[in-house]
Amino acid sequence: MSTPTYHRFENIIVGSGGAGLMAALHSGKEVGTAVVSKLYPTRSHTGAANGGIAAALSNLEEDSWENHAYDTIKGGDFVVDQTAAEILCREAVDCIYDLEHMGLPFDRTADGRISQRRFGGHSRPSKADPAKREPVMRACHAADRTGHMILQTLYQQCIKSGVQFFDEYHMLDLIMVDGECRGIIAIEIATGRLHVFHAKSVLLATGGFGRMFKVTSNAYALTGDGPAIAYKHGIPMEDLEFYQFHPTGIYRLGILLTEGCRGDGGIMFNGKGERFMETYAPNMKELASRDVCSRSIYQEVRAGRGVNGKDFVYLDIRPSTINKYRSSPRHSEGHEVDDHYIESRLSESLELSRTYLGIDPLKEAMPIQPTAHYGMGGTPTDIYTRVVRNAAGDVVPGLYAAGESACVSVHGGNRLGTNSLLDLVVFGRRAGQEMAKYAKSTQFKEIPKDADAAARKQISDALAKPRTEPWVRIRDEMQRVMMDDCGVYRTAEGLANARKTIASLKERFAATGIQDKGTIFNTGLLEYLELGNLLEMAQAMVACCENRKESRGAHSREDFPDRNDEQYFNHSFVSKNGENDTKIEQKPVDVIMIEKDGQKVPKYPLEVRKY
Amino acid sequence: MSATNKPAGDNDAFRTLTLQIKRYDPEKDREPHWKEYKVTAHPMDRVLDVVMKVKWEQDDTLGLRKSCAHGICGSDAMRINGQNNLACKMLVQNLRGDKVTVEPILGLPVIKDLIVDMKPFFDHYKAVMPFLINDDPAPTTERLQTPEQRARFDDTTKCILCACCTTACPPFWGNRQYVGPAAIVNAHRFIFDSRDQGAAQRLEILNDADGIWRCRTVFNCSQACPRGIKVTQAISEVKRALITGVVDVPQEAEALA
How far apart are CA A454 and CA A470, in angstroms? Predict the structure, then answer.
């Protein structure tokens, strides 16, 4: 391998989804900034989000950021850091206007303002009875392509302001010196050449890690590269046990059918033709939260009531079915629905079903199963997006994280729909601003001459090692055990099996190499490296799941079915302890206290999470 | 709920496909050549799944791009049975016969196997100033736009920059300096946005010798678009704006202010 190419930028952004591009724009206004991404920016998975982005604009119904903050905290089953949640919801409003000024084509109200719609878990105090909550129109949308529009708009603005991109460069390592981050090492995929990016600060915005599961809505690229590399450098991961499974993934493929299908009256049936949600959530039925619906499908399948005894059930949005079961609370306001109504409301889902199932949902029910969707946990940061290296909150100078790969903990145990896109733009913007400020206040510090030594060894080892078995087999086994034993339901026994399996898979992974020894576009090598990252993340996740002996949000322990605030009202920080072991610390949840009747009381008191 | 519903995802009728893949390894081959693979495929498999099966089970050296695998990221544009499409948007059950040819999209330099150099494509895209231009001070809330004004450019906001259209375009095959349909689609998206003030500049760029007049209205672009954008229509609208000097955008902004 030849000498690496050297670059120097004040700030390096790794990842080009919503968080990365937003940070690049804001950092790029002030200091030299470059984006390093393994994909062309417009290929990032932010583009796959459809529902909307939440902000209390009050364009159609009276709302406030405080309402939004309450929903976010409750939706997260209270393990949400409250200062961060308030920032998310307060800065949301300004961020949406920011995006609109950049050209984002939001849908419009009749009077020309940004249009908003309802979404699961977003509410305000009821006008009739302020003790109760009612749904509120808070999700700003651009057709059913909101994420696509955000990604395109941010990329367009980056072109306009001349942000420098290194497209199809894959990060291999962080340059860490004396506990500080001073850059990254990346491989240029088109040539196999190594590049040293010397920087004052680095943002990890690499997205999720859903590819560790067998059935997922996540893109192939979502392999947790940023967090895994940080984790290997001794930086802890926060709250990995909270992983959201979306109930309505297309059978086998995991592609998402939007929550709107059920919002508009869609019904789920088991293999016996029974509307099983009546048993699990007698009031809300199909409109119960994502975690509840996913658990119910799992129970049905396990009881042998999947369709033909297999692991799927039906989602039925045929007008005849919707009209027959018209009692749902969030239902199409009284009138009968017809083909045209469904077609106009759910065009994206209809298209997905027609393409991937060969099923016209207006005529037949769609086979669905829960799909691994979103990690609430990730690289821990403070509210300035600075990565912290322990539960005490000590900062890693020069290292930042934002978006799904990060955990500032605004989603806690379970994320509300439309809060993910919001997280990207709010904390992406903060990251860019903070990094610019940091870069201006500090000098470039030296990096070692052999900064790329570890990365170089990683590549040469992978190419030199004999292929003792196809790495694909290791990946498939990881995806199966994570789905079966670390999925919707968890038990001590299953998790122990997952822990042992992952440990042995890591050994097998370390022993085997790859078939393709080429340097130009060696995608086999990339997938192999990504698998290494996923195995690290899987091991850390299983440890967090074993540690949390309660059920909260998306984390459901069959052996500990209740929430246990006494012991577990806290965050988990998992770190590496040798090659195949982990250790866990607890971090208290950030709780805002207010004065009430001369006493200090929590602003958001704990309550049982019911909808 | 009818019990006779056939669970389409549960069809176990596997079949054997013969894949002809155009291979090229710049480190080994002097020129591209076809190579044949046999793969067992499920009718509901995507062509992408089948190609990945070749890579994962038979030949790790096969090069291709992929990411979302459901038609929104635009990574896996390929020429499948002679037609451009995203490999993830085409199902095995919709293939005619059991033979499939897969080759890289045409008109861009091949780097390896199914991977082409996207730089010329993105350079054309960047050349049309694909970003909102509006030098007025921004209001404290949103700029106003009526639903009709918003609808005017809705179709061209769907573009995912996959290059299926541009690399299906015969004038582009003949002249790679031609900006191509994708760049014009993205110019259209801003020219017809009531908030934008850069239409004149963009139209001037497209009026160039290698601009929009290279379009011969072949309609290949519209047929190739995996997002269903009416590409040829968008191009015609831009041509009309150039000829008439009128950018036809619904004028209702004053009524809102």
Answer: 24
Query: Is the pLDDT score of A332 beyond 50?
Result: no
Say if B242 is an interface residue toward chain A (CB within 8 Å): no
DSSP letters, A419-468, are HHHHHHHHHHHHHHHHHHHHHHHS------TTTTHHHHHHHHHHHHS--S
What are residue B155's phi and psi, to 5 degrees?
-60, -40
Find out whether A298 and A262 touch, Cβ atoms under 8 Å: no
Asked if residue A242 lies in contact with residue A553, where contact means CB atoms within 8 angstroms, the answer is yes
Could you count the other beta carbons within 10 Å of the beta carbon of residue B176?
15
In the set A124, A182, A211, A290, the catalytic residue is A290
Q: How far is residue A175's CA from residue A202's CA, in Å, rounded to a whole number?
A: 10
CA distance A88 to B29: 54
Within 8 A of B143 by CB-CB distance, chain A residues are 100-101
Please name the residue ranges forming H helices in A254-318: 260-263, 277-280, 290-302
Interchain CB contact of A156 with B (< 8 Å): yes
DSSP A88: H
pLDDT tens profile A4-44: 999 999 999 999 999 999 999 999 999 999 999 999 999 99
Backbone angles phi and psi of A295, in degrees to 5: -65, -40
pTM above threshold 0.90: yes
Cβ–Cβ under 8 Å, residues B234 and B156? yes
Strand partners, A372: A216, A245
CB contact under 8 A, B143 and A42: no
For residues B133 and B200, the answer to whether their CB atoms sit within 8 Å is: no
